[in-house]
Design goal:
The chain is of the alpha+beta class. The chain folds into 2 domains: 30-129, Jelly Rolls (Sandwich), CATH 2.60.120.380; 141-206. It contains 2 helices and 8 strands. The strands form 2 sheets. Strands 1-8-3-6 form a 4-stranded antiparallel beta sheet. Strand 4 and strand 5 form a beta hairpin. Helix 1 (18-29) crosses helix 2 (144-210). The longest helix is centred in the C-terminal third of the chain and has 67 residues, at 144-210. Residues 1-29 have low confidence and may be disordered. This is Transmembrane emp24 domain-containing protein 7. It is found in: Cytoplasmic vesicle, COPI-coated vesicle membrane; Cytoplasmic vesicle, COPII-coated vesicle membrane; Endoplasmic reticulum membrane; Endoplasmic reticulum-Golgi intermediate compartment membrane. Belongs to the EMP24/GP25L family. One of its GO terms (cellular component) is Golgi apparatus.
Amino acid sequence: LSPRLAMPPRGSWCSLPPLLLVAAMAACAARASEITFELPDNAKQCFYEEIAQGTKCTLEFQVITGGHYDVDCRLEDPDGIVLYKEMKKQYDSFTFTASRNGTYKFCFSNEFSTFTHKTVYFDFQVGDDPPLFPSENRVTALTQMESACVSIHEALKSVIDYQTHFRLREAQGRSRAEDLNTRVAYWSIGEAIILLVVSIGQVFLLKSFFSDKRTTTTRVGS
């Protein structure tokens, strides 16, 4: 997972082949955005979403790389009322129902960091997935084929969530491993320099012990 790579939105399932399109059509109806972006030090990044009143929304985020893996998050409604605010969080999830129509804003801030940039992932889901086979104007229960399609659809959604989760864990683990490797390399170089300085100092010290020291005697005549 590249730090500048954006996770594909779930709407991309709409481009699947016809055989898989039926099992993924519900993911196309509910809006969802999954983005991974870099947040520089002393910076703030905001995103905006038009939401209708009564729509259920969920915001999930996680810091993948950088510093102590923490970031400030703030969510506001169209009137500027703060719905959610957390400081220096590594990851969190917040679910709310829109109280009115308008543009909702959520921001991620790294202004408390002076030299460390972060890589942040967030998933913003707007609305619930509609049923795969609407029950309107139906007088019979789901057929065996339709029930199988529903089960496959739910399993595919779980697979997507697990894949996203493990991609994030893998990216975070790689970042920590690279950071640890860099620290070990610097520590090894420092130890080598210290050993070299100590060895040279010991050589000169031992040499001073065995070097001839000439003493001068001065006689004072009466």
